Task: structure prediction
Amino acid sequence: MNSSLSRREFLKTSGAIAATTAIGVAHVHAQKSPGETLRVGLVGCGGRGTGAAAQALAADSNVKLVAMGDAFSDRLQLSLGTLKKQEIGPKIDVPEKNQFVGFDAYQKVIELSDVVLLATPPHFRPMHLQAAIDAGKHVFAEKPIAVDATGVRKVLAACEQARKKNLAVVSGLATRYTNSYRETVKRIHEGAVGAIRGLHVHDFRGPIWVKPRQPEWTDMEYHMRNWYYFTWLSGDFNVEQHIHLLDLCAWIMKDDNPVRAYGAGGRAVRTGAEYGNIFDHHSVTYEYASGARFSTTCRQMSGCMNEIITLVMGEKGTANFSQRALEINAGEKWVYRGDKNVGQQTEHDELFASIRSGKVINNGEYMSKSTLMAIMGRMATYTGQAITWEQAMNSQENLVPDRYDWDGKPPESKVAIPGVTKVI
Result:
């Protein structure tokens, strides 16, 4: 795909994929009969990958996990042992010859699989997704799908290829597969709060793991073991984790593109070298052509108040998405009281059902646009500048190392300085 895209070209490309979203029209793929075993391969055996594998195996009565791959043998073995202890244990058939370790492990897993689960650090998602689609495999791709715009463009191209091949691509943005969110967003889209004037998000969380450096680790292994703290691997936490809230707001706004973003961020608490080069707080305002504004603040700090909440402000009322309840206040209060489900499980249920029926799902458009929206916010906080959608879309930033090798050098990981760091 051309590395420089106009807004119209982006919409044309992504629009071709839109018809295959989880809540849209599906394309027909060769049906897989219930009697045909679907071979599942896992690429990325951390906690999220282990969870995704368990959910995939629970989603269909005739599936088997046949191959696993990770950069590290210890992570693979821990994942395999954990999975074998669960109820889905009988569906696991991963002999030693199908356990692959190293940067090229994904290639061997893809070769043996019908459905590939991609759950490595986000940096690798574009490369792995493209390889899976090239090989004609269905894909579950964890969020986010890239760490830079170059990667987003690659994923868009791969998802368009998947559409033409009638291959499923399901995103790990599980909010869109959660019953309570689906019903609440549906009501908003039907006009429950009127025209949306603004959205406000607080995403306040505590810190996560840090893995102390060991003497035998090279720089590359240190980065890979602590991938969350390096922008080239995670995209920063506003891309890797906060994307769930950004995607919710993008969904509420019917996946319209913000026209520009600006904000502030930095390292107030996580200032040591063990925290790589990511920020510990970001505050971004996104502006829409309609005049609506979306303001979001996220942080990861210990000893502080924790709260995750999204407030939608419309001309007729408000909607509130919180960990306590989902409700709409527009004269008469409505609270979701319907059936509850686990979105992370439902996304796999619907993925495998779509493969069986021949009507495959393709989430390519919204997972790409929501990822780009997160990257756009990071560009704004890192540089201190206002960033337009076109600037983000056409950014030439490319966070790929010279080579994937344990003795190789990872990309330079300087801490961004707003007002000094340049827009790429």
Remarks:
- Residues 15-29 have pLDDT under 50 and may be disordered.
- The longest strand covers residues 196-205.
